[in-house]
Amino acid sequence: MLVEYIQTAMQHAEFEQMEDGRFFGTIPPCQGVWADGDTVEETRRTLQEVLEDWIIVRYRHDLQIPPVDGWDINIKPLAEEYAETNQTA
Question: Which CATH number characterizes residue 33's domain?
Answer without folding.
Answer: 3.30.160.250
